[in-house]
């Protein structure tokens, strides 16, 4: 059995993978909080998609491959099948998206939470082992059944907790604390699943085909950067509850008292409109009390 090293570069890869999982979890929780306040089905679908991308794509999938940068097997090179790798990313995003749809549609309940957690957890575990199936090396990969089952249980519990947090957390401090907890859960599931793996080298060494980790690193980093920037921009550009309330108030004023609504919508603090009416046809000049007698 070949020797496996999960931390070839020391603490750098696990630290970066944990940071990515926390970042993706925080952005996902913020987007998920917008689902509850969305005013239409289209807006709920939009925020649900962004939350699924943040949690499934960044917090789970990119964390997985960042941790894989430090994975090495003695005596063989490691390559990855690109189509299967892309499929693992889609599994993670779709699984989280469906889980959010289950708990976020209709009245929030324990039954919906358990159903969403089971589906999402199974999807996260499928993402992990699909990503591992994409790995190519000179050897046969085996898994310890007990640890595989344990990793699936961790994935289901972590997904259930993540969905519950997505539907209940509102304050910033709670979001940060929840993201830190989710990062621990995601990394715990990953390294538990990795510890279940063993590699038995082939007697005949053949050529290992596929994309190297360094080749995949550039598109993954670009996807993370553009994805995070896009999520932050969407959050900053979206109207807040106060903005919607103000717009509704001005709209109601326009229906009842157009003149008052115009004044509210376009204030005139220095009296420019009043001054502009002086001297216009049909507008009398104001009288002055101290005019000298004629």
Automatic annotation (TrEMBL):
Pfam families assigned: MHYT
Transmembrane segments: 15-33, 45-72, 84-103, 110-128, 148-165, 172-191, 211-236
Positions of the MHYT domain: 9-200
Protein keywords: Membrane, Transmembrane, Transmembrane helix
Keyword Transmembrane helix annotated: yes
InterPro entries reported in the protein's UniProt record: MHYT_dom
Region of interest called Disordered, as start-end residue ranges on this chain: 260-294
Domain of life according to the entry: Bacteria
One GO cellular component term: membrane
PANTHER family with a match to the protein in the record: DOMAIN SIGNALLING PROTEIN, PUTATIVE (AFU_ORTHOLOGUE AFUA_5G11310)-RELATED
Protein name per its UniProtKB record: MHYT domain-containing protein, NO-binding membrane sensor
Phylogenetic classification of the source organism: Bacteria, Bacillati, Actinomycetota, Actinomycetes, Micromonosporales
């Amino acid at each position: 059995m070949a020797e496996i090293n999960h931390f070839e570069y020391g603490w750098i890869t696990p630290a970066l993978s944990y940071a990515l999982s926390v970042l993706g979890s925080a952005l996902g929780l913020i987007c998920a909080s917008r689902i509850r306040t969305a005013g239409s089905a289209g807006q709920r679908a939009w925020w649900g998609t962004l939350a699924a991308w943040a949690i499934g794509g960044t917090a789970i999938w990119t964390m997985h491959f960042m941790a894989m940068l430090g994975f090495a097997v003695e005596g063989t090179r490691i390559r990855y099948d690109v189509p299967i790798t892309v499929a693992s990313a889609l599994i993670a995003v779709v699984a989280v998206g469906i889980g959010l749809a289950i708990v976020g549609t209709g009245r929030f309940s324990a039954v919906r939470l358990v159903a969403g957690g089971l589906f999402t957890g199974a999807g996260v575990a499928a993402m992990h082992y699909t990503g591992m199936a994409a790995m190519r090396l000179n050897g046969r990969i085996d898994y310890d059944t007990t640890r595989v089952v344990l990793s699936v249980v961790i994935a289901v519990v972590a997904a259930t907790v993540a969905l519950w947090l997505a539907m209940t957390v509102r304050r910033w401090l709670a979001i940060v604390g929840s993201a830190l907890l989710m990062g621990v859960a995601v990394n715990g599931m990953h390294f538990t699943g990795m510890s279940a793996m063993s590699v038995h080298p082939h007697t005949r060494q053949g050529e290992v085909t596929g994309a190297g980790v360094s080749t995949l690193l550039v598109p993954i980093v670009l996807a993370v950067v553009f994805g995070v920037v896009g999520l932050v921009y969407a959050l900053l550009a979206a109207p807040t509850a106060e903005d919607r309330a103000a717009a509704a108030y001005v709209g109601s004023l326009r229906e009842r008292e157009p003149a008052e609504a115009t004044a509210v919508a376009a204030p005139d603090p220095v009296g420019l409109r009043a001054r502009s009416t002086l001297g216009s046809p049909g507008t009398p000049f104001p009288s002055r009390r101290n005019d000298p007698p004629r």
